[in-house]
Amino acid sequence: MGLLDSFERGLERAVGGAFAKTFKSGVQPVEVSAALRRELDTKAAVVSRDRILAPNDLTVRLSSPDFQRMSSLGETLIDELTELVQKHAAAQRYTFPGGIRISLVDDSSLSEGVVRVESASVKGSVVWMPVLDIDGTRHPITRSRTVIGRGSDADITLDDSGTSRKHIEILWNGERGQVNDLGSTNGSLLNGERFTQAALPPDSVIEIGRTRILFRVLARAERGGDQSRGSAR
């Protein structure tokens, strides 16, 4: 499966039926993601033998109807686009001067179906944003400890009788993750292997009961910083 295919399938899983209802015409999300990849490839610059620098501040300009459709998906779309940009950069061995920032802009000068991307290289700190994808729902991790299970006192409650009331905990220190089994009855799997305590790298899959949990980490940009903007496409 290619990057664009996995992007669109991931977005469909995240927003469910809203995807099919929203995108019957105009610019499709996969066209936006393709435009972002082209912008990276066009603006990537070789700065040394082992470093290719790509712009990390990306502005997507859309007609008003297309902007309204895209915006209706909220942060879910931005998260999926950010992950796709990360993966494309890793595959091409690009580096960024800071965290990734993707913005959607309503541009009344554009016709429906047209997408333009502007880019800038912005120096700044990276904010690592961990998220959990569970049964089509995205759960941002906003605390250092997140408990998952079927009990109402868990931070994320699952409708899964195969899980314990407090089945696992996700620990996050701002840069790295860890997952611990909290003495569950049926145990837990991390990337297919049983565990009681384990480091949690990005793109890991946790299985508890009948529930599959995908752990991802997005590189977001802090606000502020010096920038050099590229030309519109």
Automatic annotation (TrEMBL):
InterPro entries, alphabetized: Cell_Proc_Reg/RNA_Proc, FHA_dom, FhaA_N, FhaA_N_sf, SMAD_FHA_dom_sf, YscD_cytoplasmic_dom
Chain ranges of the FHA domain: 146-195
Keywords annotated in UniProt: Phosphoprotein
Protein name in the entry: DUF3662 and FHA domain-containing protein
Organism of origin: Microcella daejeonensis
